[in-house]
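job 3f2a | input accepted
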Amino acid sequence: MRTLVGSAAVAALAAAAAASIALDLGAFKAESEAQAIQVRRTGDGKTDFNGIWQALNTANWNLQDHPAGPGVVVELGALDAVPAGLGVVEGNDIPYLPEAAAKRKENFENRLTADPEVKCYLPGVPRATYMPYPFQIAQTPKYILMAYEYAGATRTIYMDGAPPSPDDSWMGHSVGHFEGDTLVVDVTSLNDRTWFDRSGNFHSDALHVVERYTPLTSDALAYEATIEDPKVFSRPWRISMPLYRRLEKNAQLLEFKCVEFVEELMYGHLRKQPNK
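job 3f2a | predicted structure (276 res):
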């Protein structure tokens, strides 16, 4: 006989598990700092972030706690199903303004066609970090390059004398500095055409993101992003998660240039039809 658990109980268990994970991560950071972990360093003494990294969570499906569920294409069955996941949002609350909350609900209902990921648009920040694809960091004293497998996305973090942003863009304008061993990146000039996840969480062109990359071990980072958008949210909010170094001997960033995969979806209706 199956035992059915009420939604309230599931939510309580998920919240307790998320709180436990947050406490464990915080304790791990504190313990690592107390033990003076061996941080990889560049020639100028800064934390060395060079390498290929990847998040191992379900944040790309939904930033908040969520149960397993069906996908949006019935014919794909379990292939399109949503895996259950613990949220990465501090307090598990995204503080939408009332009108924005309604828009988020509309996005979710229309996610099969409205999610920018469906069309292979560039993922934006912070979504690029926790999509289910690795990304690579190449570091110099003046610049840090982040190259993402998904859609061939890239961005340059200016560490010394950033030029003014030319315009809003998919990946924004990134300016970085170090606070101890932590890399802090201030991201502005983001357009309003990206989402945070597949569940319809979104933002406007007023989005401002401050990222923090802190070493936990030589092969793991604590990633935090503080999100501010007064057009959509009533207050700033934060996400956090670990990132892991890919340790395979032949680890490399491969191509996932998905534009060709969506040409028929987006432009098939423009094909010239033969005369009858």
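job 3f2a | The longest strand covers residues 208-217.
job 3f2a | closed
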